[in-house]
Design a protein that fits this description.
Elements: H1 2-55, H2 62-77, H3 82-103, H4 107-111, H5 113-148, H6 152-158, H7 171-174, H8 179-182
Helix pairs in contact: 1-2, 1-5, 2-3
Organism: Sulfurospirillum halorespirans DSM 13726
InterPro entries: LemA-like_dom_sf (IPR023353), MamQ_LemA (IPR007156)
Pfam family, one: LemA
Length: 185
């Protein structure tokens, strides 16, 4: 009888340990996502000023500016889950990359002091997003490992925990910069 109680006690402790580990990893992902979301909001707050400062110079890139504004409004007004937010932010990052490339064609805009300040601030925010994205991806990796590895995968199945998506870099940003063409303009 004592052996049975000891084994039952050990199994109970193992179940409690697995449950608490999974909850801890899930909460860590949620906390780091909240930090990432705060930095993304900072970028969203910066975008109207950036769009307003370049709008008068960039008549031919109005589609890019409209798309950035549309994506920002969607990100700010809709309650999106983490997957939708990640997809939307990838689009926004891509459009901002296109905008910064287009700026190269407007020498007066490149020399504008307000634009230079906004560009530097945006660059700083993008670095913060990059750091937050790394922390988020690491916590998602730990969480996904915990819900897929034995024996916690059984407990995760009972708790209906699902894989979380990592925040990856858009393909356009992975390509290397064509330095030769960059300096010919």
């Amino acid at each position: 009888m004592e052996t049975f109680l000891v084994v039952a006690g050990l199994i109970f402790l193992l179940v409690v340990f697995m449950y608490n580990t999974l909850i801890s990893k899930k909460n860590q992902v949620d906390t780091i996502y909240a930090g990432l979301d705060a930095v993304l909001k900072k970028r969203h707050d910066l975008l109207p000023n950036l769009v307003a400062s370049v709008q008068e110079y960039m008549v031919h890139e109005s589609i890019t500016l409209e798309k950035i504004t549309e994506l920002r409004i969607k990100a700010m007004t809709h309650s999106l889950d983490s997957r939708e937010t990640i997809a939307l932010e990838k689009q926004l990052s891509s459009m901002l990359g296109n905008l910064m490339v287009a700026v190269e064609n407007y020498p007066t805009l490149k020399a504008n002091e307000n634009f230079l300040h906004l560009q530097a601030t945006l660059s700083e925010v993008e670095e913060q997003i990059s750091a937050a994205r790394r922390a988020y991806n690491q916590s998602v990796n730990d969480y996904n490992n915990a819900i897929e590895m034995f024996p916690t995968n059984f407990m995760a199945g009972l708790m209906h925990l699902e894989r979380k998506e990592v925040f990856s870099i858009p393909k356009q940003e992975r390509s290397s910069v064509d330095v030769k063409n960059l300096f010919q303009k």
